[in-house]
Every structure is written in structure tokens, then in C-alpha cells.
From TrEMBL:
This is uracil phosphoribosyltransferase. SUPFAM superfamilies: PRTase-like (SSF53271). Its EC number is 2.4.2.9. Pfam families: UPRTase (PF14681). Keywords: Allosteric enzyme, Glycosyltransferase, GTP-binding, Nucleotide-binding, Transferase. Pathway: Pyrimidine metabolism; UMP biosynthesis via salvage pathway; UMP from uracil: step 1/1. GO terms for molecular function: GTP binding; uracil phosphoribosyltransferase activity. The keyword rRNA-binding does not apply. It is an enzyme of class 2 (transferase). It comes from Daedalea quercina L-15889. The keyword Glycosyltransferase applies.
Length: 213
């Protein structure tokens, strides 16, 4: 793995990911598992954030405290990225949320942009791009390009992902070598229709209970 790609090895994360994989896991449990893993990803990906000091008052006396200095942006890729958003908002309640709509065309497997809620000018210092699955890497790369075109340097973007394929990670790293990626698991294979194997299945469908019979 690249030194800019960080794979979480925490036992709780591994257990949550194993629960997500199971076919018997229902939508409520799946949402909770995505949320819990996203908290871990957010904590790990933000541990080097710049801080600023302030003087505060406790019931006993004064103290010197710290606050996160940068303005934070969250960019969930619709719709599955919504499953990660609340977890990151727990960590950064004042974060701005920029929804990015991209879907993968079923025949060509190429990303198609259909929605962007980015302001005309950059308004944050760092963006956490939220995408539960990196399969072929096409959707993540398209979203990254949208953020770069908006004016965010790659060095100020961090990609948070629950599960990735080797193929998808390699594609994203080849196109954005300076990008930091945080992921809780990496699977070896893709199916012929671009699904991660063994994977989690369709994350959006499992999150929002829209699985087809």
C-alpha cells in the first residue's frame, strides 16, 4: 500500500465490517455499522488537524483549551455517501456539507455527474470526501476531479471509504498520487459488472432498504 493509503486494523472496525458483509444484516444494522466505521475513519483521518488555543472558564477556574482551527467540508457522494455523513457531522458539527451526485452507468461502468452542491468559490480549508465503496475507482476519481476543479488542492482533500478493491485504489492513487485515503478494508477482486468481491453488495440499497427481490 502507498504511505498515503491508511487501512484501519482496529478490532472493533474489523468486527463491524464483518457484520456489514453478512447477507443476514438488515438495513438498520447496516446503517449503524456504516455509521460506526465512519466515526473511526473520521477520527483517524483528522488526527493531524491544526488546533488553536483559547482561554476558558470551568466552575473552578480558568483553563487553556483547544479548538479545531480549519473550516471543515464534507462531500458525500450520493446516495450511499449519505450513510457516512451524520457520523462525520458528530465529529464536526459546524462542517459544511457539499452533496455530489454521480452514478455509474451500468453498461460502460463510467461515472456520470448529475448534481453538485458546491458553492461558486471554495469556502473551507479541508474536505473529507465520503464514499462507502471504491469499486472500479471511477466514481471516486470523478468526485475528486470535481473538487479539484472547484479549487481544492488534492493535499487538502481526504477520501474516506468503508471498503475498496485493489483495482479501485490503484486507479485513484494513479490519478491522484498526493491524495490521502482512509479505508477500513480492501478486497482483492471485482466481478465482471464492477462489483467488489466478496464485498458488501450494493451499499445504497442496503442502507436505504431498496433491495430488489
Amino acid at each position: 500500500m502507498s504511505d498515503k493509503t491508511h487501512v484501519l486494523t482496529h478490532p472493533v472496525v474489523r468486527a463491524r465490517l464483518s457484520k456489514l458483509r453478512q447477507l443476514s444484516t438488515n438495513s438498520k444494522e447496516f446503517r449503524e455499522g456504516i455509521h460506526d466505521i465512519s466515526i473511526f475513519l473520521g477520527i483517524e483521518a483528522s488526527k493531524d488537524l491544526e488546533e488553536e488555543e483559547f482561554t476558558g472558564q470551568t466552575p473552578i477556574g480558568t483553563f487553556t483549551g483547544t479548538a479545531v482551527k480549519p473550516n471543515i467540508g464534507l462531500a458525500p457522494i450520493l446516495r450511499a455517501g449519505l450513510g457516512m455523513t451524520d457520523a462525520l457531522l458528530n465529529l464536526f458539527p459546524a462542517a459544511q456539507v457539499f452533496h455530489l451526485g454521480i452514478f455509474r452507468e451500468k453498461v460502460t461502468l463510467q461515472p456520470v455527474e448529475y448534481y453538485s452542491k458546491l458553492p461558486s468559490n471554495t469556502t473551507v480549508d479541508i474536505v473529507y470526501l465520503l464514499d462507502p465503496l471504491i469499486a472500479t475507482g471511477g466514481t471516486a476519481s470523478a468526485a475528486l476531479q470535481m473538487l479539484v476543479d472547484w479549487g481544492m488542492p488534492v493535499s487538502r482533500i481526504k477520501l474516506l471509504c468503508v471498503l475498496a478493491s485493489h483495482t479501485g485504489l490503484n486507479r485513484v492513487r494513479s490519478e491522484f498520487p498526493e491524495l490521502e485515503i482512509w479505508v477500513s478494508g480492501v478486497d482483492p477482486e471485482l466481478t465482471d459488472n464492477g462489483l467488489i468481491a466478496p464485498g458488501l453488495g450494493d451499499t445504497g440499497d442496503r442502507l436505504f432498504n431498496t433491495l430488489k427481490e
